[in-house]
């Protein structure tokens, strides 16, 4: 085990819902290396406790009375007694995660995450790492590629590219599923990934792009 995990991990739970704080206490109580050192139910309490004590990890909700979690992140970033912040929010990743990370959070989890994911995240960030889900990691990678010369279709995996060309050729999800021996749900998932990676919203945009770049001869209007 990493030596840094042999010492207690002192945690501050910052959430305005008592039932959430109680649930987190119950989950974390099963892990002897974790100590719940305190709770905060609003921004003022978070800032007061950070000023008076040192915390290994702050589990921070983004929606609290007074000032939002994002505002707290901005202030804590320049605080002399800096703590590692793991955001635990009801908001989906695509709404706030990237912004929270840019403001100094070490990780982002939604409240739909499993207890095991929460523990993994705490252990990761307390050792100096960053914790993001696979989906968010992909989004971050796409952001880095935005200004590069990489064409959008080059970001696709082999299977995604195959599905992309079939969509661009005018084939429906059901027809693609049959041809590739996949479920309709799986093909729909590929389509969603393709649209996200290529920064497009509709099949028509995919078709226009593919024809313009010579990737297909044109749509098969069936």
In brief:
This protein is an alpha/beta fold and 222 residues long.
Describe this structure in words.
The protein has helices at residues 18-28, 43-52, 69-77, 93-102, 115-126, 134-145, 158-168, 173-180, 184-197, 203-212, and strands at 9-14, 34-40, 57-60, 84-89, 107-110. The chain is α/β, with parallel strands linked by helices and 222 residues long. The chain has two domains: 3-139, Rossmann fold (3-Layer(aba) Sandwich); 149-212, Orthogonal Bundle (Arc Repressor Mutant, subunit A), CATH 1.10.10.10. A five-stranded parallel β-sheet has the order 2-1-3-4-5, with helices on both faces. α7 (158-168) crosses α9, α7 crosses α10 (203-212) and α8 (173-180) crosses α9 (184-197). The longest helix is centred in the last third of the chain and has 14 residues, at 184-197. The chain starts with 8 loop residues before the first strand and ends in a 10-residue tail after the last helix. The model is unreliable at 1-5 (pLDDT under 50).
* Helix-strand category: alpha/beta
What is the CATH C-level name of the largest domain?
Alpha Beta
Would you count the extended β strands for me?
5
Please state how the strands of the largest beta sheet are arranged side by side. Answer: 2-1-3-4-5
Question: What is the radius of gyration?
Answer: 22 Å
pLDDT below 50 for ≥5 consecutive residues: which ranges? 1-5
| Name given to the CATH homologous superfamily of the largest domain | Response regulator
| Form type | elongated
């Amino acid at each position: 085990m990493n030596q840094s995990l042999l010492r207690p991990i002192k945690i501050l739970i910052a959430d305005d819902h008592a039932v959430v704080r109680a649930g987190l206490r119950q989950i974390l109580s099963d892990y002897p290396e974790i100590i719940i050192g305190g709770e905060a139910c609003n921004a003022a309490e978070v800032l007061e406790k950070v000023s008076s004590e040192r915390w290994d990890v702050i589990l921070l909700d983004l929606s609290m009375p007074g000032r939002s979690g994002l505002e707290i992140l901005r202030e804590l970033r320049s605080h002399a007694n800096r703590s590692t912040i793991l955001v635990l929010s009801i908001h989906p990743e695509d709404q706030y995660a990237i912004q929270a990370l840019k403001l100094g959070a070490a990780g982002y989890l939604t409240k739909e995450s499993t207890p095991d994911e929460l523990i993994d995240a705490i252990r990761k960030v307390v050792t100096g790492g960053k914790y993001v889900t696979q989906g968010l990691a992909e989004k971050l990678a796409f952001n880095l590629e935005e200004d590069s010369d990489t064409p959008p279709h080059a970001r696709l995996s082999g299977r995604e590219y195959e599905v992309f060309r079939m969509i661009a050729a005018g084939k429906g999800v059901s027809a693609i599923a049959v041809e590739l021996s996949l479920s309709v749900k799986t093909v729909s998932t590929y389509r969603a990934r393709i649209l996200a990676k290529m920064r497009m919203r509709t099949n028509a945009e995919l078709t226009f792009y593919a024809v313009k770049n010579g990737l297909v001869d044109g749509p098969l209007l069936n």
